Structure to design on (109 residues):
């Protein structure tokens, strides 16, 4: 039996993922204001996932995310994005904002 092959086919452009981050965060803010914090948290989590996928693209020099990273596993995404999960657990918000160069300006709230 052959091992499954990981897809290297581009599945979504990096710039589209970046647009999704901004859109989902804007929507999350609206939901908080409308008294729906659980839905806002869900959308903010989706924005974090997209943000990590943008960082993966930047780290690997890709214009588009590849099928290999079609996952919702945040630990795996953090590992491949250049952010170390263990150091982020102990880092405060300011340190995270200072070390977000893989993601880009304006993405730290």
């Amino acid at each position: 039996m052959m091992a499954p092959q990981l897809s290297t086919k581009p599945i979504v452009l990096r710039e589209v993922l970046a647009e999704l981050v901004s859109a989902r965060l804007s929507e999350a803010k609206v939901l908080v204001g409308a008294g729906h914090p659980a839905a806002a948290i869900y959308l903010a989590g989706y924005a974090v996932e997209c943000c990590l996928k943008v960082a993966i693209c930047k780290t690997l020099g890709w214009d588009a995310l590849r099928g290999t990273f079609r996952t919702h596993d945040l630990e795996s995404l953090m590992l491949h994005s250049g952010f170390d999960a263990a150091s982020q657990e102990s880092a405060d918000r300011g340190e995270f904002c200072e070390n977000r160069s893989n993601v880009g300006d304006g993405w730290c709230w």
In short: The beta strands are 10-13, 64-66. Residues 88 and 96 are 7 Å apart (CA to CA). The first helix runs from residue 14 to 33.
